[in-house]
Amino acid sequence: MATIEDVARVAGVSTATVSYVINDTRRVSDPLRLRVLRxxxxxxxHPNNVARSLRVGQTKTIGLIIPDSANAFFAExxxxxxxxxxxxxxSVILCNTDGDPSRESAYIDLLINKQVDGLVFxxxxxxxxxxxxxxxxxxxxxxxxxxxxxxxVDEVVADNLKGAIMATEYLLKLGHTRIxxxxxxxxxxxxxxxxxxxxxxxKAAGLELDETLIIKGDFQCxxxxxxxxxxxxxxxxxxxxxxxxxLMAIGAISTACAAGLRVPQxxxxxxxxxxxxxxxxxxxLTTVAQPKYAMGTVAADLLVERIRNPQAPYRRWxxxxxxxxxxxxxxxIRP
Length: 335
Ligand code: RIB
Fold this sequence. Notes:
Blueprint: H1 4-11, H2 15-23, H3 30-42, H4 49-56, E1 61-66, H5 72-87, E2 91-96, H6 101-113, E3 118-121, H7 128-134, E4 141-144, E5 154-158, H8 160-174, E6 179-183, H9 189-204, E7 214-216, H10 221-232, E8 240-243, H11 246-258, E9 268-270, E10 287-289, H12 292-308, E11 316-319, E12 322-324
Helix pairs in contact: 1-2, 1-3, 5-12, 6-7, 8-9, 10-11
Bound molecules: alpha-D-ribofuranose (RIB).
């Protein structure tokens, strides 16, 4: 089995330089780094990570905890996190909680026991998540997407309030006045902020809020379909619907079509996230894009900085959302 000395000999550098490259403990010029990496490949050398982590006190791994790995929103955030973490010498361990607080607690414990150097955390959606995060025994944490009240922690969120305002204003400008809203999980900040943006925009337009137009969903496709059924059963159904994520918007489109309605001619539907599917639904979905990949890369940078400087002041990044107009909304044909 090749040793660090073999790598140094083949690369024509000192063993210290090889160690700096492996452990990222000192700046090494790109040409030298390349020579060492090529020598490691040539000699088939694999550093002993357990020994290294004991020596440098780091495993160079980051844990990512997300509530729904089947939702492309979280997959894209994870992709940004992995790409940036890898470029900074860290591997990522992904844990999917399926929105289950008990699994969330188990994964926090598991990752701490695995001695990850830091955690990126998207809450499953219950208030106790804050206390679980707070009890991570000092392991650096960055919260993404879902704000956690009551704890001081680095955070990366999207401007959900502004996004919902843009979506609702867009429908108002098309001439809709009877606009429904399908909300997401009730106890997570993105859903609350989007519902708040919808409400305040309707109020600012001088429209009386009809609470029967606001239906609870859970960010899953089926809940969007069920919510749309409820809206269409109203004595005076809405002519447009703001869904608080794309999966629920897709469920709503499916229900509208099954009811013999045309989207957007009979009912306009707007989503939130801009996952890849949104561009290829029928009709292509107008939605509010979240900076998913950037949320992951910013989270990686914040966490690596926190690992290197635990005393740095906490930072909160609010990333912009953007209205993406496609073909699922139109001027109403009925009042
Ligand atoms: O689609 C999943 C939703 O949950 C997204 O809108 C994201 O903001 C997350 O909170």
